[in-house]
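Below is one protein, fold included:
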Amino acid sequence: VLSRYPEAQPLPERPELDTLLGESGLDLVWHPEFAQGLGAYRFRAYEEASTFSTGTILPQRIPTAAPDSAPAGETSAEIAEARVIENKLRRAVAEGAFLVLAVPPCRMLMAERELLQRFELERRNVDELVIRTLRADAQAVRADWNVVLRADGAPRQSEDWKRLLLLVNRAMPKVEQELSTSPKTLLLVNPGLLARYQQLELLVRLRDRIGRTGSPLHGLWVLVPTNGQAVLPTLDGQPVPVLSAAQWTQLSEAWLQNKHRA
């Protein structure tokens, strides 16, 4: 936080920091034994027992029922919505499509696990790929990586920031090429740097490769965090490029819990 926002107020120590993180929506648990005894946070989704600090149980995934064991009866609105989402995902993975999947930040890991478990997808971490490519390009021109990091925290009007964007622009064709060669549908996670570095057009170029003659890219799904209040999905306040409602969907809590198949 300090490297990104040097003028920000210093973060408090624990336990005040625990409260602050909870209020921000980050579902983290402190482990004093982590980081060689220094202590560290871990997302609660990784915990064996998933409970909020208030003691209420975090909703869990419901096992899928056998086809002939599902009880007959009236279908609730949330289950009907989950079935619509399910059908949309099935068609998208079968036919090949561009799809933006929005989910609350605290459910990102659960959504990622469910998608990878249910569908034949190839997961790619966009932030990791962008940083790895930037580091390789910086090394190629013998640029100090610490200088690049400082530029990332510089004001947007500064020359350091503008030089950083030049480096990013040179790296993006390599990022695009690496993401264009999968015969499976790609599931892109952690795409935040695309918005930070003004590179959301990468998604447009990848979207346009789907179904094109000679293009191996079968489909592209992008998992983005949302508070559920936006009309269209956004990243860092910037709209994610979708052409219509057919290209994005909000993963509902009922779908995440597998209620429509329980």
